[in-house]
Amino acid sequence: LIKFIKHAKHYNMEIIPLVQTFGHMEYALKLKEFAHLRENSQQPAAICPSNNMSIVLITNMLTQIIKLHTPIMPLKHIHIGCDEVYNFNECPLCRTRFLDKNTLFMGHVQKVSEIVRELSPHTKVLIWSDMILRNKKPEKYTLFDNIEPVWWHYSSDFREWSHAVAYNLHLQFNEIWIASAFKGADGFSAAIPNIRSRFSNNVEWMKLIFNYRFGGENKVYNFKGIILTGWSRYSHMSIQCELLPIAMPSLLLNLMLITTLKKGIQDDLTQTDICEFFNKYLKTDFENIFQTLPSKDNKCTFEETKLHKEFDEVFNFEPIDICLQELRTTEMFLS
């Protein structure tokens, strides 16, 4: 891991660790020694925010991560998760505090952000936005000047998301991010990503934030960055889905989309059909690069060829070869 961090520094790549600190904590709460920290004794997903020992565990985890990175490349950002916390404010410790869910949630987030501030004063804290957006009464979180929410959405249907949602986040926080998906969002047992859905998801995000203004204002609101998520399982207890090798075409395509738009285009993106956009701006470069990816006739040629052959015998790359062949047919790519 230290070698990986050093390589990232060499290539001027920033690493943003993700450490779940509220929900999705099965990796710790499934263990006997931490089971007493569960919000619900029968479910290992969420940690109890009212148990003092929960903060001890979270502090230890964050300390390990931050201390590992700091001597090599101090963290500019760290992600503390906090998404999809479905079961909380249920245990006796929480209920005796007589707090509503939003107050309890943001109180826990504040504690965790202060831990990060003490360990690494210049590190910004990222959190997923879904629990914040559940609060129907947006407020300016003046105490959370080091927190930056990441507004995530992985489908191409943006009917429930609007500029008003983004505006509310901008009112509450100094900086916000967005997050799309290039893989891991097409079914918990999917073998390959739906490349059209992944492309459409990123196009719709770009349409939403492109030259974004609210109402009649002249001010253009900025987004600090976009995170192309690539999930390998829906939860800790789920099976793996859409492994990285088969998702490389999707990653390539969506990175090309974002970099192309960053350079600027002549067309009005909000009025442009995705197929027309692909054919006009991405098709040639995508096909040229895509031809270098492994196929049935051009298999992986890394040094340990014997190892690759053994994997081929066990896992059978035939479905991957078929998928790549289909993707190489442009008409099928976005049909």
Characterise the protein shown here.
Strand 5, helix 7 and strand 6 form a beta-alpha-beta unit. By secondary structure, this protein is of the alpha/beta class. It has one domain: TIM Barrel (Alpha-Beta Barrel). The protein contains 13 helices and seven strands. The radius of gyration is 22 Å and the shape is globular.
Q: What radius of gyration results from the CA coordinates? A: 22 Å
Q: Which series of helices and strands comes N to C?
A: HHEEHEHHEHEHEHEHHHHH
Count the beta strands. 7
CATH superfamily: Glycosidases
User: Roughly what percent helix?
Assistant: 40-55%
Structural class: alpha/beta
Q: What are the key terms here?
A:
single chain; 335 residues; alpha/beta; TIM Barrel; five-stranded parallel beta sheet; 7 strands; 10% strand; disordered C terminus
Summarize the structure.
Its EC number is 3.2.1.52. It catalyses: Hydrolysis of terminal non-reducing N-acetyl-D-hexosamine residues in N-acetyl-beta-D-hexosaminides. By secondary structure, the protein is an alpha/beta fold.
